[in-house]
Description:
Blueprint lengths: L3 H23 L3 H32 L3 H8 L1 H25 L1 H7 L2 H19 L3 H7 L1 H24 L8 H32 L1
Amino acid sequence: MMRRGPILLLLTALALSAGSALALARAPDLTEALRWIIRGTARTSLALFLLAFLAAPLQTLWPSVAATGLLRVRRWLGLSFALSHAVHGVAIIGLAQHAPALFWTLTNPGSIVSGGMAYGFILLMAATSWNGAARWRGGRPWRALHRTGLWFLWISFAVAFGKRVPVDPLYGVALGLLAVAGLLRLAAFCTKRRRKAEILAQG
């Protein structure tokens, strides 16, 4: 029987394929289809990212069977996020090639640079998400890469959704979820530091 992680990745791939096919079939033209895919994958990427971002903090703050299960598939959540954002990136490139004038009204060179950095982190994190790669790199460098990458992506999502709030207040919901997730991760970090200090004091 396949494990939950690979099943999650497979289901993500099927959902992304079905969603993209539906957009291409139902949109009035290719430009609009690409924009539908970009918006849809932005949402799926955010959901998968938040689950991966919160897996360890939830286990630290509120240990439970559910939190343990989430933590066990964290790697696959990250890989599913990488897949979703890869489709997102392909759709963006497609829009840039198919409708360059529209593309440049929606973005700017600064956003392209920061987006490229985000994709660089995603690629590195996905490539080092396997057990063998983690052992090869060593524990501390691997953790530093993934910790830095997670926070960079958190900032990227916050900026991307935050600047759209004046256009559509619903983006404020996503921004609020990111804020809560960031606070929970910081709270978990402080909790772990306090526990470690208490153990050292007792020893």
